[in-house]
Amino acid sequence: MATNYATVTWDQLHRDARTLASALITRAPFKGIVAVTRGGLIPAAIIARELDCRLVESISVVSYSGESAQDQKEPKVVKAPVAAGDGEGFLIIDDLVDSGDTARVVREVLPKAHFACLYAKPNGKPHTDQYVMEVAQDTWVLFPWDTAPLFVPPLARNAN
Ligand SMILES: O=P(O)(O)OC[C@H]1O[C@H](OP(=O)(O)OP(=O)(O)O)[C@H](O)[C@@H]1O
Ligand SMILES: Nc1nc2[nH]cnc2c(=O)[nH]1
Ligand SMILES: [Mg+2]
């Protein structure tokens, strides 16, 4: 299990995706965007809207089965991004790089594409061309689609 958790709200995610889009403007226009499923789908949709990019392809990668680094297996591509060729002129979007294994496998498939993500842990940083915010390696990022608001009892009830 991760030592710490960092909760990202929908508002924060939207802001960070727009920040990434504005940092990518100088490289636009892209021929298209490749979203790394599933976590890259919503960031890719926001960035496609901001960059006015209509061609959105996906690469489906399966690796983690739970919420820690121990739950990771070698990532497997279960759907190829056929519309993106070797990636030339394309932008790859994922939500984050952690070990960097997913990004490494995606880049093998699309060697000429530009890889960008919202969050990067230190081990993943060498595998991404661009990111918005660094997160500690021992922190598990909780995305808005991973979480739900729940009742928390008042502090005073646990005081004695
Ligand atoms: O750098 P890594 O250690 O490979 O981790 C990063 C990957 O892990 C998560 O995907 P996950 O495999 O959990 O699948 P999902 O996107 O379908 O939720 C995340 O969306 C990245 O794609
Ligand atoms: N939700 C989530 N998925 C991940 N996959 C690899 N690292 C992470 C993380 O920190 N959070
Ligand atoms: Mg993913």
UniProtKB/TrEMBL annotation:
One Gene Ontology term of the molecular function aspect: hypoxanthine phosphoribosyltransferase activity
* The keyword Magnesium appears for this protein: yes
Q: Where does 5-phospho-alpha-D-ribose 1-diphosphate bind?
A: R38, G39, K73, D94, D95, L96, V97, D98, S99, G100, D101, T102
Which terms does the UniProt entry file under GO BP?
GMP salvage; IMP salvage; purine ribonucleoside salvage; XMP salvage
Which of UniProt's keywords are assigned here? Answer: Cell membrane, Glycosyltransferase, Magnesium, Membrane, Metal-binding, Purine salvage, Transferase
Might you report a single GO cellular component term? cytosol
From the UniProt record, list the reaction(s) this protein catalyses.
Answer: IMP + diphosphate = hypoxanthine + 5-phospho-alpha-D-ribose 1-diphosphate; GMP + diphosphate = guanine + 5-phospho-alpha-D-ribose 1-diphosphate; XMP + diphosphate = xanthine + 5-phospho-alpha-D-ribose 1-diphosphate
Which pathway is this protein engaged in? Purine metabolism; GMP biosynthesis via salvage pathway; GMP from guanine: step 1/1; Purine metabolism; XMP biosynthesis via salvage pathway; XMP from xanthine: step 1/1
Q: Where in the cell is it found?
A: Cell membrane
Question: Which of this chain's residues are annotated to bind GMP?
Answer: K73, D98, S99, G100, D101, T102, W140, V141
Required co-factor(s) are: Mg(2+)
Q: Which domain of life is it from?
A: Bacteria
Binding positions for Mg(2+) per the UniProt entry: D95
Kindly list the positions annotated as binding guanine.
D98, V141
Q: Top-level EC class, please?
A: transferase
Q: Which residues form a coiled coil?
A: none
What Enzyme Commission number(s) appear in the record?
2.4.2.22
Q: What does the entry list as the binding residues for xanthine?
A: D98, V141
Annotated membrane topology is: Peripheral membrane protein
User: Pfam families per the record?
Assistant: Pribosyltran
Q: What is its main location?
A: membrane
What this chain does, per the entry, is described as: Purine salvage pathway enzyme that catalyzes the transfer of the ribosyl-5-phosphate group from 5-phospho-alpha-D-ribose 1-diphosphate (PRPP) to the N9 position of the 6-oxopurines guanine and xanthine to form the corresponding ribonucleotides GMP (guanosine 5'-monophosphate) and XMP (xanthosine 5'-monophosphate), with the release of PPi. To a lesser extent, also acts on hypoxanthine.
Which NCBIfam families does the record cross-reference, listed alphabetically? PRK09177.1
Q: Know the name of this protein? A: Xanthine-guanine phosphoribosyltransferase
